[in-house]
Amino acid sequence: MEYIQTENLRNEVEQSVLAAPVIDIHTHLFAPNFEPLALWGIDEVVTYHYLIAELFRSWNGTPEQFWAMSKTQQADLIWNVLFVRNTPLSEACRGVVAVLTAFGLDSSAPDLREAREFFSRQTPDEHFENVLRIANVSELVMTNDPFNKTEQRVWSEGGPSNPKFRAALRMDPLLNDWPLAVEKLSAGGYEVHQDFSGRTVKEVRRFLDEWIELMRPLYMAVSLPWDFRYPDDSTRTKLLREAILPASREQKVPFAMMIGVARAVNPLLGDAGDAVGHSDIRSVEYVCRENPDNRFLVTLLSRENQHELCVAARKFGNLMPFGCWWFLNNPSIIAEITCERVEMLGASFIPQHSDARILEQVIYKWKHSRRVIADVLHASYLELLHDGRRLSRAEIDRDVARLLSGNFREWVGLT
Ligand code: FIX
Ligand code: ZN
C-alpha cells in the first residue's frame, strides 16, 4: 500500500474532491420540460434573490420601482450597480463572476450584451447537460410542489425529461398554511376539513401516497419557521404525527426538515425578504426520539444552531445533518460548520447542497464549496498524520465519496 506524504496531501485531497461526482441533494432547479419553472441564463442568474437583496444596499430606488421593471431591465440595473459601479466582492456576486468565467465570458464587461448573446445560442437539453458536467453534479434533487399546476402537468405526463433530475415532495403548503391546503386539497377531490373531522387524516394520507407513487421522491421535505416546536397543539403537529411521519416510515421515504426561516421580514422584497431565527433543537431531538423508525434529514438556518445539531446527530442514528443552508452558504461559514461536523461526526454527514434556483449556479456553488471542503479535509488529515496514522489515496477517496454522494445514496436508498 502506498501512503501519502504530508507534502503531497493538499494535492491529493484537492484532486479527490474535484474528481468526485456530487449528488446535489437540495435545489430549486427543474428539468427543461418543467418550463416555465426551469430557470437558466444570464438574466436569471443576475436577478437571483440573493443579489436583489444586495442591490438595495447600494441603490437608492424603491422595491416598487424595481418590481415595475422588466427582467432585462432588472438584470441591467443589478449588473450596473453591483458589478460595474462596485466591485463584486460578496459571495453571491463572486458566484456570477465564476459562472461567466466558466463559459469564457468577460466578467468585467460594462454590460450584459456578450453574455446574453452567448446564452441565446444555447439549446436547453445540451446546455443543461453541459452545466452539470462542468459542475461535476451526477444527479440533483428538485423541490417539487404537488399543488403547482406546471408540476401536475409534468408528473401526469411521465416526469422529468432528464433522469438526473430527481424529485423531493415538498410539504410547505400542507404544514405551513393549513387553511390554504384544505382549499387546494378539497379542489383536488380530497375530503378534508379545517377541524380535522371525518376522513381528513386518511385523505391527507391518500394525497401523500398518491404523490409518492407518481413522483417517486427521494425524500419529503418542509421548510419550517424558526419558532417551530414539536410537539405542540397545532395542526402541524397533528399532520406530522398522524399523516406525514407514518407515510414517511411506511413508504421508506425520509423526511427533511429545514428549520429556521423568518419569512417575509421585509415583504416588499419577495423571496429576498426572508430572514433567519434561532431554532429549538429540543424539538428536533423530540421528533427523532419519538420516531426511531423514521429517517430524518435536517438542516438548520441559524449559525448558532450548528453545534447543537452536531450534538443531536451524535445521539440519534436516524438524524442526518445536511448542508450549509442559504445565509450559511458562504466560504467562511461553510469552513467553520464543516470542520465542526468532521470533528464531531467523522464522515457521517452530508456537507453541502447548492440550493441553486438557476441552473448555472451549480457551477459556482459547487466550485466554492468543493474548495472549502477540500481545505477542511486537508486540515483534518494533517492532524491525523501528526497523530501517527498512515493514510492512502483510496481512504481519502472513500471519505470524499461518502460525503459528496454515498451518505445520501444510502440514506434514501438510491442505487
Ligand atoms: O425554503 C427553501 O428551500 C429555501 O432554500 C428557499 O426558498 C430560499 O429562498 C433560497 O433560495 C435559499 O437559498
Ligand atoms: Zn431551498
Query: How many angstroms separate the termini?
Result: 30 Å
Number of strands: 9
Order of helices and strands: HEHHHHHHHEHEEHHHEHEEHEHEHHH
Q: Which fold name is given in CATH as the topology?
A: TIM Barrel
CATH superfamily: Metal-dependent hydrolases
Q: Which spans of ≥5 residues are poorly predicted at pLDDT below 50?
A: none
Q: Report the biggest beta sheet as strand number plus sense, adding barrel if it closes.
A: 6 strands, mixed
Mean pLDDT: 98
Residue fraction in strands: 5-15%
CATH architecture: Alpha-Beta Barrel
**Estimated structural class:** alpha/beta
Helix content: 40-55%
What is the CATH first-level class name? Alpha Beta
Q: What molecules are bound to this protein?
A: D-fructuronic acid, zinc ion
User: What is Rg?
Assistant: 22 Å
> What's the overall geometry?
globular
Description:
This protein has 415 residues and is α/β, with parallel strands linked by helices. It has one domain (6-412): TIM Barrel (Alpha-Beta Barrel), CATH 3.20.20. The chain has 18 helices and nine strands. Helix 1 runs antiparallel to helix 17. It is globular, with a radius of gyration of 22 Å. The two termini are 30 Å apart. Bound molecules: D-fructuronic acid and zinc ion.
Write the layout of secondary structure elements.
Elements: H1 6-19, E1 22-24, H2 42-46, H3 49-58, H4 63-67, H5 71-84, H6 91-102, H7 113-120, H8 124-135, E2 137-141, H9 149-156, E3 165-166, E4 168-170, H10 172-176, H11 178-187, H12 200-215, E5 219-225, H13 235-250, E6 255-262, E7 275-276, H14 281-290, E8 296-300, H15 306-315, E9 319-321, H16 331-345, H17 361-386, H18 393-412
Parallel strand pairs: 1-2, 2-3, 4-5, 5-6, 6-8, 8-9
Antiparallel strand pairs: 6-7
Bound molecules: D-fructuronic acid (FIX) and zinc ion.
Residues 143, 223, 258, 271, 326, 355, 357 line the site of D-fructuronic acid.
